[in-house]
């Protein structure tokens, strides 16, 4: 089918809107937290808790709240304004009242008997509308070979840490394959385009194609089924999964089907030659741009539902072909307009890494062109490396767009005893005090997990990752209390460990992550 024919046929599809909205209710979310409780502690210990979800507990719609009471011979009462709020309250009780610890590497869950009493009703209200998790690279560095059992544990960890906004990229290649076939590409061309499983993060951002491919023949079906399970569980807690959207990157074979398409070949990414890099970018003014973008998003929403927040990265670690602000604004607007053509409530989650990664290109006129190309409030920016090199402070708070203060901490999942504890502890509150601040949340965005346990569980009260998720329900920084984390990890204080970690607190875990090789 030629270009005109595809445009005519697919334009009819743009009339429809995205798939049905997916929202939980109080009973469903409370049941999800009770399920978590049983998986974590077992049915006997779980019987010592009573969990409920009451939206009215929150003083405002975006102010998630939890309340703890009881214990000491009566059931511990855990109430949250959402499932993730209740789970965060449960985690607070286990951590601070029982000395327990739940981490990526395992858990220490020796409960006192009877369960300790909460002496005075404890209520916490988060100042963060969003508590975000995941870097777009994390699935490739850490998650790529996971099955449901490991994903279930990770989603439980997210809930316990109050995460309510999380990247959910699994299964998108099956949708892209469907779209490309509809557009006229053949199976061989599509197989040649996709990277192998471990490199999909960079294929999705347009950095790579073909490298490590093709995907296994069973990949699409298995990943789609896994995504159904992931999304159902996330939504059952009240989390909002962030699904992908079209950023403009297309296979080379697209030009065979549409030889008149306005396409730009980008430069190579780092040291990859054009056999595996040099992606093709569809021009924003080409009439096929909204067709491809809307077709993909509609198919995605039909398959997986939608929570109206989408991720797309156009120029990740790749300079655009033009620094003209008008070009940058037009490209950005084209991506957003393809979203709202399908979902009028679409919000674009955008990694701000490009602004930090190449400041020589991204000067104020270029950054402003991108950030003002989307209606204010419909762009949600991740200030990805804010613990070390925040961007909000040199863009007047992203020129009025809402942003999430994020801790990146590690590159490539590299291991090392490093971290900037004080910067993490004070960073979110400093961002809130910035003139005309548009901060709406905090996030943890490591490129890899299962690393740096000493920094994560070190001599600070919360460690590093644990510190930031602890701050998600606080307005002000935490005072440090060196012994607390050791109680969580071991169940008792061992003096030689405490002495060692005190040395680390004044040295190693004050070293910024960019001091180590990437």
From TrEMBL:
Which residues are in the Alpha-N-acetylglucosaminidase N-terminal domain? Answer: 31-116
Which keywords does this Swiss-Prot/TrEMBL entry list? Glycoprotein, Glycosidase, Hydrolase, Signal
Look up the signal peptide feature and give its range. Answer: 1-20
Question: Can you give the residue ranges of the Alpha-N-acetylglucosaminidase tim-barrel domain?
Answer: 131-454
Q: What processes does the entry annotate via GO biological process terms?
A: carbohydrate derivative metabolic process; system development
Reactions it catalyzes:
Hydrolysis of terminal non-reducing N-acetyl-D-glucosamine residues in N-acetyl-alpha-D-glucosaminides
Q: What class of enzyme is it?
A: hydrolase
Domain of life of the organism encoding this protein: Eukaryota
Sections of the chain in a coiled coil: none
MF annotations from Gene Ontology:
alpha-N-acetylglucosaminidase activity
Q: Cross-referenced Pfam families, in alphabetical order?
A: NAGLU, NAGLU_N
Q: Which InterPro entries is this protein grouped with?
A: GH (IPR017853), Hex-like_dom2 (IPR029018), NAGLU (IPR007781), NAGLU_N (IPR024240), NAGLU_tim-barrel (IPR024733)
Tell me its EC number(s), please.
3.2.1.50
Q: Family assignment?
A: Belongs to the glycosyl hydrolase 89 family.
Protein's UniProt name: Alpha-N-acetylglucosaminidase
Q: What's the source species for this entry?
A: Monodelphis domestica (Gray short-tailed opossum)
């Amino acid at each position: 089918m030629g270009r005109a024919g595809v445009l005519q046929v697919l334009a009819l599809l743009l009339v429809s809107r995205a798939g049905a909205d997916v929202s939980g209710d109080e009973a469903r979310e409370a049941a999800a937290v009770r399920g978590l409780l049983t998986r974590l502690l077992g049915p006997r210990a779980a019987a010592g808790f009573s969990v409920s979800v009451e939206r009215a507990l929150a003083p405002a719609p975006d102010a998630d709240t939890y309340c703890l009471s009881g214990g000491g011979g009566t059931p511990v009462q855990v109430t949250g304004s959402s499932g993730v709020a209740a789970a965060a309250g449960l985690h607070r009780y286990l951590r601070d009242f029982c000395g327990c610890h739940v981490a990526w590497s395992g858990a220490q869950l020796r409960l006192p008997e009877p369960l300790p009493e909460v002496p005075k009703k404890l209520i916490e209200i988060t100042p963060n509308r969003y508590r975000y998790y995941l870097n777009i690279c994390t699935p490739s560095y850490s998650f790529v070979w996971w099955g449901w059992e490991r994903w279930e544990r990770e989603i439980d960890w997210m809930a316990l840490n109050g995460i309510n906004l999380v990247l959910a990229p699994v299964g998108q290649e099956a949708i892209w394959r469907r779209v490309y076939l509809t557009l006229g590409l053949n199976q061989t061309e599509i197989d040649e385009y996709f990277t192998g499983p471990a490199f999909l993060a960079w294929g999705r951002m347009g950095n790579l194609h073909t490298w490590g491919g093709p995907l296994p023949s069973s990949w699409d079906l298995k990943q789609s089924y896994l995504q159904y399970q992931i999304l159902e569980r996330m939504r059952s807690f009240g989390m909002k999964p962030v699904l992908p959207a079209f950023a403009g990157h297309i296979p080379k074979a697209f030009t065979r089907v549409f030889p008149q398409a306005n396409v730009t070949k980008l430069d190579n990414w780092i040291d990859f030659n054009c056999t595996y890099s040099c992606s093709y970018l569809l021009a924003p003014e080409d009439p096929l741009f909204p067709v491809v973008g809307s077709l993909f998003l509609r198919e995605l929403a039909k398959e997986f539902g939608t929570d109206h927040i989408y991720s797309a990265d156009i120029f990740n670690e790749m300079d655009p072909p033009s620094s003209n602000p008008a070009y940058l604004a037009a490209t950005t607007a084209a991506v957003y307009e393809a979203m709202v053509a399908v979902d009028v409530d679409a919000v674009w989650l955008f990694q701000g890494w490009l602004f930090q990664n190449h400041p020589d290109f991204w000067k104020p006129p270029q950054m402003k062109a991108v950030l003002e190309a989307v209606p204010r409030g419909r762009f949600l920016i991740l200030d990805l490396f804010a613990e070390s090199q925040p961007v909000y402070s040199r863009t007047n708070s992203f020129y009025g767009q809402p942003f999430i203060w994020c801790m990146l901490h590690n590159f490539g999942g590299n291991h090392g005893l490093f971290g900037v504890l004080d910067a993490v502890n004070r960073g979110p509150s400093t961002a809130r005090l910035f003139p005309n601040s548009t901060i709406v949340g905090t996030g943890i965005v490591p490129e890899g997990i299962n690393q740096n346990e000493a920094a994560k569980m070190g001599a600070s009260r919360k460690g590093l990752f644990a510190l930031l998720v602890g701050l998600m329900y606080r307005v002000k920084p935490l005072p440090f209390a060196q012994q607390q984390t050791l109680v969580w990890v071991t169940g008792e204080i061992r003096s030689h460990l405490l002495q060692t970690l005190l040395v680390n607190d004044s040295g190693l875990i004050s070293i910024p992550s960019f001091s180590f090789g990437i």
